[in-house]
Each structure stands twice: as structure tokens, then as C-alpha cells.
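Retry 2 of 3 after timeout on previous attempt. Resubmitting C-alpha cells to design endpoint.
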């Protein structure tokens, strides 16, 4: 199928190029031919003007025309000049009788006085370009001057041009055919790759749908085959069917989301999203699963920088305690409040005892424009994967842990200067890791590193990281995975800071 398409594509490419080349060659031919003819006509007209100015006119008596041309005196000096230019002159009387000519044999051609030159066919191999002028003095016609130029001055370069254009066009068409064949291969390669991915995607989706559907069908058939089944066993089978239908629902939702992303139908609902509060919700949701597996789950927020405030009036020196905002979660802890409500107290070392403590408010530090639901889905997938593939105890008898770190980063421009601010989220674990050979394929749909890793029923469908990458791309960010087998994995998500209506500010209140 692809070879036939490739041949058709190359043929079309060659045909279109050949037509364009032929049109170009035809245009060049017509332009050069018209230019040569115009040059010959200009030469003929110039000769006519020169001869016309050199005519010797004598008065006569006893004739109808009181003037006549002295032929010998008029053409004696022009003969040598026109022979050098391969131009022939003919002089005719007012009645059309040939009186003088530079031709060896007179031409049996009637006179056609006109303002433009014409081509005369004497024989198939003998053509002339002629220009005839009526010479007048007042209202009297003195005679006719006809100037002829051989046509080979035009046909010779034109024939050479036709040969050159034919050879050049043929070579160009052959070269275009060869290049078109190579370019068609390059053009078909992404189509072929997309088709192969589509086939693989369809096969994987069919496989993922077939197993739960077959299991549901088996359980239903067993339940229908035994009408006297015990209620407890019947309830167990219904729970299995419910679990499988939920799995099918998640799979269909994931497939539908990816299909909408590919078609451009999914547009983020842009709104200010405090990423620290969102991560706290994700951690809180995953905390129970982590506790059940015996995995330590933590969220780390950046340090508050140290600085000094100096006042000339009070001569006070104030400093903010450098604190690491690190939250450790356990099942017994109450739900955390968003970090936007966090208040940091400023300690005064040399200040008036009556002055109340200063407060530092940091609003919108981690707020960006994004889609809350998509970002929640992104980090839920990443954290749940980290928890799922981290054992309670590692090979080195270390406690299993998953760490989520949020920080602001500056990205340098090409010139070495600092660029815009970005929000970076790292999800780290000391789990089983990912082989280096699998990292380039980790974001492919339905890709699984090892079937043994996904034997758990809650292991998912292999679409989590593909959805994560699609969400990051929708938010114009980047996602990267570093992993070492049996040592752990680090997933780094970088999202651009957005220009909100109220930018980040530090507030210090001094009563």
C-alpha cells in the first residue's frame, strides 16, 4: 500500500515539475525568439532610415511626377555597408518596376508597403525578413524601398536554443523523478510510522478491552448458569463485574481524552491555579495508599530567603528566620490548608518593645494560568505511579519513600542572561526504577516495561504517562524522566509562570 502511494506521489511530483519546466522552457523560447525578431526588425528600420536620408532627389520635366530619384548617386555609398550586414536593398519605381537591387536574382514577390516587417517564404529553406517603405515627397510618390534580411539570423540561434532547452528539460525531469522518489520516501516515513503506531495502538486497545470484557462475560454466564447460587457468591461475582466495569470506564475515558487531545478538541479551561495547594490535595488523596504500603510520602516547598530590613528612623535591623516549609503527611494529620494563607512571622532583634511583629505575605508565588482538572490529573498520575512502583523496603533495606518537591527556577537565554521564571515540580522515589533502554519509549501509549510490573489489577492501562505528557504539552511545559534501575526515578515537570493580573509581591506591615 505504501509503495503504491509512494509511486503515485513521486509520479505526481514529477508530472507537476515537468509541466512547470515545459511551461518555463516555452516561455524562454518565445521570449528569445521575439527578442531576436525585434532586433532584426530594428536593424531593417534603421537601414531604411539611413537610406531614406541619403536619397538624391532630382527635378524632372515632362513627367507626371516632377521629381525622381537618382539611383546611381543614391545607392552608390550604401552598397558595401548593407553587404557587410547581409542586408539586401531593392528600389522600385512609383509603378512598382524594379530599378535597382543588390540581389543576384530579382525576387518575384509583390510589394507590400506597411509599417511593420513581414516574413517571406521563398522556399522551405529560404526565408527572408522584409520591410517595405513608400518614399514620398509632398503628395508625390517617388518610389518604394524594400530591405531584406536573411532569416537564418533568427533560426540558427533559435534551433540551438531548442536543443539546449530540450536537453536541459529532459535532464531536469529525470533528476526531478529521482529526487521525487527520494522525497516521497521521506514524506511517507512519518505516515508509515503513524500508521504503525495506530495499528499498535488499536491492537493494544483491543487487547486491553478484550480481557475485562471476556472476564465479565464469563462471570455473567456462570451466574446465569446457576440460578440457585448462594447470595454471598453472587455478590462476589457482582463485585468482580463492578471492578472490571470501572476499569473499562477508566480505560475508555483515557482513550477518549487522548483522542480529543490529538484532534485538538481538548482546550484547557484557563484559570489561576495555586500549584502548592493543588499538590497538597494530590498528596492528601494519595496518602492513604502510601500508608497502606508503608511508604513515606512528603511534599517539600522552597525555603524563604534571608534578608535584612534597615530603618534610619528606628535604627532597627530585622531578619526573617530561614525556614524550610516541609510538610510530612500521615493518616492522623488533619487536612492541610493552602499555602496562600501561610503567614511568616518576622523576628525583631533590635526593635521597640511596643512594636508588634512584622508579617510577610507571599501571594501567588506558585500560581500559574492553567486547567485545574488537567494539572490535578497530571500530578495524580505521577504520584500514584511513584507510590505503585516503590516497595516498602528496598534491596538495601531502606524505607520506601516518595518525595514531591516544588520550586521556582530561572531559565537562561541563549545569550547567557536570565530568562523568565518557571515552576518546577519533581516527583522522586527510591523504587524499582526504569531500564535505560525503556526511557525513550516511556511516554508511548500502552507501553509497559515488564508485564510483571503491571500484574496488579490496579496497575492501570499504560496510558498514564502518555496523558501526562499531553497535559504538559497543552500547558506549554516540559516533562523529563531520569531513572536508574533498582535505585529510583525522578520525574521533572517544568511549567511556565503566567502573567497574572496581580503579580507576586512581598508585603511588610510596620505599624
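Retry 2 succeeded. Sequence:
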Amino acid at each position: 500500500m505504501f509503495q503504491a502511494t509512494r509511486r503515485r506521489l513521486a509520479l505526481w511530483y514529477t508530472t507537476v515539475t515537468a509541466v512547470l519546466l515545459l511551461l518555463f522552457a516555452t516561455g524562454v523560447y518565445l521570449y528569445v525568439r521575439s527578442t531576436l525578431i525585434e532586433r532584426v526588425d530594428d536593424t531593417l528600420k534603421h537601414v531604411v532610415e539611413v537610406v531614406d536620408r541619403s536619397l538624391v532627389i532630382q527635378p524632372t520635366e515632362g513627367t507626371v511626377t516632377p521629381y525622381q530619384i537618382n539611383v546611381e548617386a543614391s545607392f552608390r555609398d550604401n552598397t558595401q555597408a548593407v553587404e557587410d550586414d547581409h542586408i539586401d536593398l531593392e528600389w522600385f519605381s512609383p509603378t512598382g518596376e524594379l530599378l535597382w537591387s543588390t540581389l543576384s536574382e530579382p525576387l518575384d514577390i509583390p510589394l507590400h508597403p506597411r509599417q511593420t516587417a513581414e516574413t517571406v517564404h521563398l522556399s522551405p529553406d529560404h526565408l527572408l525578413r522584409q520591410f517595405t517603405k513608400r518614399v514620398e515627397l509632398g503628395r508625390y510618390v517617388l518610389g518604394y524601398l524594400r530591405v531584406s534580411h536573411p532569416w537564418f539570423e533568427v533560426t540558427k540561434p533559435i534551433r540551438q536554443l531548442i536543443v539546449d532547452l530540450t536537453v536541459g528539460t529532459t535532464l531536469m525531469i529525470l533528476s526531478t523523478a529521482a529526487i521525487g522518489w527520494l522525497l516521497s520516501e521521506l514524506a511517507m516515513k512519518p505516515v508509515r510510522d503513524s500508521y504503525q503506531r495506530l495499528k499498535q495502538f488499536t491492537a493494544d486497545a483491543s487487547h486491553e478491552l478484550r480481557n475485562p470484557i471476556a472476564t465479565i462475560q464469563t462471570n455473567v454466564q456462570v451466574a446465569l448458569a446457576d440460578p440457585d447460587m448462594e447470595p454471598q457468591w453472587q455478590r462476589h461475582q457482582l463485585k468482580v463485574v463492578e471492578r472490571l466495569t470501572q476499569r473499562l470506564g477508566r480505560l475508555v475515558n483515557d482513550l477518549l481524552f487522548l483522542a480529543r487531545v490529538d484532534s485538538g478538541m481538548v482546550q484547557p479551561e484557563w484559570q489561576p491555579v495555586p500549584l502548592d495547594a493543588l499538590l497538597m490535595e494530590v498528596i492528601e488523596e494519595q496518602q492513604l495508599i502510601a500508608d497502606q504500603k508503608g511508604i513515606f510520602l512528603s511534599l517539600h516547598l522552597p525555603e524563604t530567603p534571608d534578608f535584612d530590613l534597615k530603618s534610619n528612623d528606628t535604627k532597627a535591623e530585622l531578619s526573617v528566620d530561614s525556614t524550610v516549609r516541609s510538610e510530612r503527611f500521615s493518616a492522623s494529620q488533619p487536612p492541610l490548608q493552602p499555602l496562600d494563607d501561610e503567614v511568616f512571622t518576622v523576628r525583631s532583634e533590635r526593635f521597640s518593645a511596643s512594636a508588634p511583629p512584622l508579617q510577610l505575605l507571599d501571594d501567588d508565588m506558585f500560581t500559574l494560568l492553567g486547567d485545574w482538572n488537567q494539572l490535578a490529573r497530571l500530578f495524580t498520575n505521577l504520584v500514584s505511579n511513584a507510590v505503585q512502583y516503590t516497595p516498602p523496603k528496598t534491596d538495601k533495606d531502606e524505607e520506601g519513600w516518595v518525595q514531591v518537591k516544588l520550586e521556582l527556577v530561572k531559565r537562561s537565554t541563549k545569550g547567557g542572561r536570565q530568562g523568565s521564571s518557571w515552576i518546577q515540580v519533581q516527583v522522586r522515589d527510591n523504587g524499582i526504577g526504569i531500564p535505560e533502554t525503556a526511557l525513550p519509549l516511556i511516554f508511548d501509549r500502552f507501553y509497559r516495561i515488564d508485564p510483571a510490573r503491571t500484574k496488579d489489577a490496579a496497575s492501570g492501562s499504560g496510558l498514564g504517562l502518555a496523558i501526562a505528557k499531553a497535559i504538559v504539552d497543552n500547558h506549554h511545559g516540559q516533562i523529563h524522566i531520569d531513572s536508574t534501575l533498582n535505585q529510583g526515578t525522578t520525574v521533572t515537570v517544568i511549567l511556565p509562570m503566567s502573567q497574572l493580573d496581580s503579580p507576586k509581591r512581598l508585603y511588610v506591615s510596620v505599624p
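Attempt log closed. The first strand starts at residue 57 and ends at 59.
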